[in-house]
Structures are given as C-alpha cells and as structure tokens.
Amino acid sequence: MELPEEGIILPIDKPYRWTSADVIRKVKYAAVRHFGRKNLKVGHAGTLDPLATGILLVCIGKATKKAEELQRHEKEYVAGVTFGATTPSYDLEKDIDREYPVDGITVDALEKVLKGFVGEQMQVAPLFSAKSVDGVRAYETARKLFRQGLPVEDQGILTASRINIYEIELLSMSEGIPKTQKDDGKGRIRVADISGRKLVTAMIRVRCSKGTYIRALARDLGEAMGSGAFLSSLRRTKNGDFNIEDAISLDKVMELFSENL
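^ that's the sequence the OP posted. Answer follows.
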C-alpha cells in the first residue's frame, strides 16, 4: 500500500482504557515501518477520554493538516450517566468521593431536565482535562490536588466556554451500571470498582458542538436532578461525516500495515 499524496484519515474505533496518545503511538510505529518514512506525521482530530470508545480520527501524512478542521465538526455520543454518586474525574478513572439519594431519579423527571440542556450554553470543563491554563494542562493541577488529598474542584481555575447541544435524548434507564464497554485487557488506565452501590444509570444520546465535555454534562445533569452523577460509559458514534459504522478496529489497522513487510 502506497501513501497517497493527500495522506490518510483513519476512523479508528478507539479501544477501552487506551489513551488517544496510546493509539497514535501504535499507529505511527506501524505506519513508519510500512511506508518507510521516519519523519512521517501522525496525529488525531479530537481527543477521546481513556474510558471512552468510538471514532478517533487518525490523520497520517499531509492529512494531519486537516486535523484542526475535522475537530470543528459536530459530534455524537452515546453516554452512560450514572446518578447517586460523584467522582473527582467525573468518570470511573477515580473512585467515588460522595454519594447521593436516587429517589427522585425517574424517567419523567430526567426527560424534563434534559430539555433545558438543548441549545447554546456555557460549560466549565472538568479539571481532569487537557485544557490549558497559563501553559499548564488542567489535569496536572488536578492530579497535584488529588495527590495532596485536597478537593479536586474547579474553584475558578477554568473559565466557562460556549458550547452547543443540538440534540439530547434519553434512550433508557436502569439500576446499576449496564455492561457497555468491551475491554481487550491491554489498556493501562485503571477503572474504579463501584460494586455494591445503589445507583441509577441513564443511557443518553447527545449531538453537540466541538469543545463539549460529556463528563461535564454528566456533572451538570446530576446537579440539575438534585443528586450527583458521573460518566460511566461513553462511545463517540459520529464525528462530522464519519459514522461508527465506518470505524475500523486498531487490530485491523495493524493488519493492514503489516502487509508486504
């Protein structure tokens, strides 16, 4: 396989517990060997959290010049928002720090609340994020606070950004946390054990603009419901013109790049 002049855009289904950087390193190593180009550029068009799966657009060669444009496209997710507790990272990368009652978490109540989240709004990103503050990544500040045993709360460190939620739809609601993630056992990111907790999970489809943090949306939904919430699963199902049906596995990409070596 020859490298096209315009480069390649690969819609990869990012594995669970892999960082986006992990995927780029693996693809770059294989692509450099396959194409025989030591200085080959490889990047992605929009980070996915380690505990998320779904479309990660990986750009190779001159296609890396399109990464910024691709990041601006709207995205769609299917998210598991679990009510009854919070975590410092707003997902399962950190353990539960507070618990809340779930008596008021009903389908009718949540559907009413969801209507208020449609449209343009201001959103504060999680402190555990790649947002930059005075040249320092926000997650570095969050990790420092966490190691010191201090509350990992924004406290004005991050400013709100304007986002747009075009559609938000409740798909289902159930007790506990449904098993939605496929784990290949190779990911290096830990997952908190939350067994034995009284929790309620809503599966929600969200179509939104660039810069929308679904973990922050989970936090805000918990507050709006008079409880607490965190993101228990996340799958990016669409990125611009790329649908999840178009995505290929990382293993398949490795197979393609191993041909003719």
